[in-house]
Queue: 3 jobs
Job 1
Amino acid sequence: MELKRNKNCSDGYAWIDYLSLQFTQNVISETLRMANIVNAIWRKAIKDVDIKGYLIPKDWCVVASLTSVHLDGMNYEKPFEFDPWRWEKIEAGTRNNCFTPFGGGQRLCPGIELSRLELSIFLHHLVTTYRWVAEKDEIIYFPTVKMKRKLPISVTNLNH
């Protein structure tokens, strides 16, 4: 709301405005941690691989479950609770190998900043222009993350 109050109607938003929305980034990170659209990735071993004493033979397929890493109590305290404040303690982004909604290493999504920017703009306008009430719903994590009742909400415009 402070950012919106500081802007005139004709002023556009600048990159510095995006960077100032730190809590919005925390909300985005927490949402992606709990409900990443890509819940697993498949890889095929092109040679025998030894990982901590476990042999993955050549030509075997491996599934890496991103959801299980994001919801593991060893990686995140109270992992099933939505807590955007946790990201004030965790360095959100590329150096946390337990947070992989955009992949990692050589396969890091090149659109990571664009998608975060788009989400930030959308969320900024949503929370500064509208109010909503969500009906009780339940998260389903398998086979993909979705809401059981599709998260029905009632939306009202703050300007009316």
Job 2
Amino acid sequence: MLIGILLLSFVATALQRITGLGFAMLTAPFAVVALGTHEGIMLITALAVIASLFMLPGMWRDINWSRVAWIGIPATLSIVPAAWLGAHIDGAIIYLLVGVLVIIGLSAALFIQGSSEPVTHRGAQLLTGIGAGAGSVLAGIGGPAMTIFGVLSRWPVASFAASLQPMWVMIASATLAGRSWFMGSTLPELTWWMWLFAIVGIAVGMWAGQRALGKVKDRVVFGIVIVLAMIGAVLSVVTGISQLV
């Protein structure tokens, strides 16, 4: 099962290189089932940092640093109270709440997308950051909040994908610290060759995603982003239900 998760990181990295997100949303639910909530989220979060660091140099010129600051900083700051809250609430309930809220929020965003002006104000960016940070530390998925803002703001795909990478480095690093300090989470004890296997898989996945760039239309890419976010939300609900049962 663990090897399967490491292999899945290859696919997730390729998708993240194209869309900007998807790594944690695809891999976290499986890692939680295989390793438990604490070690599963810690592993995927650590791999997410590596994946985003690999991608940063090639995407640097498209990064919107203003949005990185207005979304990434609130996301990082929200992790401390969210981690404290997570230490006092049943993990299954957290997964259910996160999943249901994302499904409702994303559905609403899609419904109003074509009937309103783009939503780009600072308040929306702050709320996006808080949602992404809380979702990351509580359930290992911060991408849906970003997707909702991406839909409402009609963020150009290239800038959206690039700008998320420094945000993921910030959010994932803070998540590792927050979960370790407040929730007692630890990384699983992997052998050196498993870490090497994961890093190579991430590098190859990034190369595959890079090769696919320009061959997929922006509308299709954002469609994939929306589907990934919805899959992440549904898997979060399923994970919560399975833990309750």
Job 3
Amino acid sequence: MLALAPAALSHESAIIAAGGDAAGLNAKENGPIQIVVDAKRNLVRPSGVSLHYSRHLSDRILSHTNPPRVRLEHAVLDVAGEATSDFAAIACLSDVVQARLTTPDRLLAALAERDRTGRRKFIETVLIDVRDGACSVLEHRYLIDVERAHGLPRAVRQSPTMVGRRGYRDVEYREWGLIVELDGRLHHDSASARDADLERDLDAAVFADKRSLRLGLGQVVDKSCRTAFKVGRVLSGLGWPGSVKSCGPQCAMEECR
């Protein structure tokens, strides 16, 4: 960076410097360092560096850090806005909030300061959902692709367990006594984690008379329509008076009937 000064870490490099997870950002261990410089400069990119130009360098960097870096919120918005997929954008936004590096409100405030950001409306919607409790990629996909798209009732998110092992329920349909837990592979691969999950399900059934469904990436991402139909069937059996709706002409829900 000394050869490019004044300059600052940006994008994934700035997030990692602020305590972010390199694996969650798909940042390669020997990948290029992300550096931002003023837009008026015209530099030759050194080897091992990805060079970005910005008209807002003085407003968005933390010059007192060593090395200087773009403010976390703006680095996150840069990565999410340039992500190769909506899934990757959601992951970036939700991961930094889960890690308590920032908050949805801070990210929304930073978004409001920016004239141009890729996926702007999508990012704003995701941040509002994260603020309202959809804390992970999987939880957001369940909310959008399973629950909302198919007319399931609105659930309570991140509610405390209240009985047995302490923790929070991913999704809870309180009126009908149904809990939906969403298991991403990252946090549910070990035997001890799996045991803790099953213990929570057992506690819910024994001490709170609640039924638990445990869904993974396949059910939420690859089979969202069929999953919505099945969750709706369970809710109907528990007294929900509504009905599951098709999400469109290509909805796979009809395959379950």
